[in-house]
Amino acid sequence: MFYKTDNIQFEELKPLARQCSGKIYADVPLNFFENIDALKNYVITLKEMGVNTLLILPHFLPSFSAYVVKNYEKPCKLFGTWEIFADFMKFVKDLDMDRMIDIPFNHADWSADNLKREWFISSESGGIEAGADDEDADKNRVRINWGAFVLDNSITELQDYWLEKVIYPHIEKMHVNAIRIDAAWGLDRKGLKRIVSKTKAKFGDKVWFLAENLGMAKLIELAESGLAAGADRFFNNMYWYSGGLYIPTDIYTFYKRSEGAPTCTIYSSHDTLFPAMKGLAKLRSDELKGLNDKGIVRKFVEYEKITSLSELEEMTQQRVITLMKQDFALASLMSSDVMFAAGSEKALFERINVCDSNADSFKKGIESDLPGFMKTILRIKSSERIFNAEGVVIPFGAWKPEDNGIKGYLKSTDEGKHLLVAVNNANCDLECRIPKRMRKLGKGCVYSDKGRQITSLPQRMIISKGQILIITA
């Protein structure tokens, strides 16, 4: 799978100190698990793969969805009591993993316990249902409502509620050390800044914040609330990139405005298609050309009734797994952090539904060498600073879903280091041009599952079909 040079001498990869490594998040829906023991066993497998940050979807007592909270002062059914939740988080802490909870500050059940009705925007006139503009499967612009109602986080009393009843107890008593700010882009900037600054003043480096700033608009606009609040880390929009320069330019703007704040590239999450479905869509791109994610889901799940990769022939499964491996390599090394959703390593096919996905959904994966491959890539990531740093990212090649060929990017850091990651998803061997800025440094390092190899860099390198080329200089 990896590119190999003629010289067979490889250096063993040594892990960086923890403080130099990026965050490797597993995005874990709790309703995938029937009990705490099943969840704990899965966390152990994540740790063995190289995950260092467990991000659980909202663990509060839900209404009909984890993101429509009924009571922020009670845990969901899986945990039952705060004592059980604290014990679980202690278990994760003992594995030397960060413990991140996801707090929907932005919206809640209209009849949520303990929340005053006047804390909701337009409460006197029935409130405002939370949601966003989106496209349906036919590319019609529609309003997607989430079943929750918008909270007014400019209200100091509500901010104090978040701090005193939700955030502080989790850090003080339940071993939580990281918080994902759900829909940070929609929160009152001053209110969010007060929440973050008060927490930091009380706990210092014992807690850090990740701001969700995703959306089909400019990244810098979506990130403004998180930037103003002083969030420690952010998501980037790279998983939407499918050709053109819009998203890379957007990321570059954010890179400059944030002074190189750490960002997370999403391989998969509860908001995106699973990589297995994206891989099959690429294999069948001629017939799916022009379909958006919802159209792809309708085609495969509703019309063709595909619910698992196991329902497809073996050759197709293997081709999908190869594409998944390539995309994981690209995603993992692009920015400081990377995230994947629970089940991606099992090649789960149907996207996560925060209302309906359950333990049976989690059992629909297949056995393959994908988890071992992901572990290898994460071992490579943990070996060099450039794999865990922000930089100027310039994509090149066949990024559009319907294109086949060399697909990759060049990342250059402020320290003068360069990283090239390229994959060949065509059915033939192809040349990859090595940028002059790398070649003029004389030698570079080529990485594989055996370690790294120091070698002179030619003008061009041949990447065989299905191979992955990783070079630093």
Task: Please write out the topology.
Layout: E1 24-28, H1 36-49, E2 53-56, E3 60-65, E4 68-75, H2 82-94, E5 98-103, E6 107-108, E7 129-135, E8 141-150, H3 156-173, E9 178-181, H4 189-203, E10 208-211, H5 219-229, E11 233-235, H6 246-257, E12 263-266, H7 275-283, H8 285-288, H9 293-303, H10 314-332, E13 337-341, H11 359-362, H12 370-381, E14 392-397, E15 406-412, E16 418-424, E17 430-433, H13 436-439, E18 443-448, E19 451-456, E20 460-463, E21 468-472
Parallel strand pairs: 1-2, 1-13, 2-5, 5-9, 9-10, 10-11, 11-12, 12-13
Antiparallel strand pairs: 3-4, 6-8, 7-8, 14-15, 15-16, 16-21, 17-20, 18-19, 18-21
Helix pairs in contact: 3-4, 4-5, 7-10, 10-12
User: Which class of secondary structure composition applies to the elements?
Assistant: alpha/beta
Our count of domains comes out at 2
**CATH H-tier superfamily of the largest domain:** Glycosidases
Name of the CATH first level of the largest domain: Alpha Beta
> Strands of the biggest beta sheet: in what spatial order?
1-2-5-9-10-11-12-13
Helical residues, percent = 25-40%
In CATH, the architecture of the largest domain is Alpha-Beta Barrel
Low-pLDDT segments: none
Question: Span from first to last CA?
Answer: 21 Å
What CATH calls the topology of the largest domain is TIM Barrel
Number of helices: 13
Main pleated-sheet profile: 8 strands, parallel, barrel
Overall pLDDT confidence: 93
Q: If you compute it from the alpha carbons, what radius of gyration comes out, rounded to the nearest whole angstrom?
A: 22 Å
Assembly of the depicted chains: single chain
**What spatial form do the alpha-carbon principal axes imply?**
globular
> What's the count of strands?
21
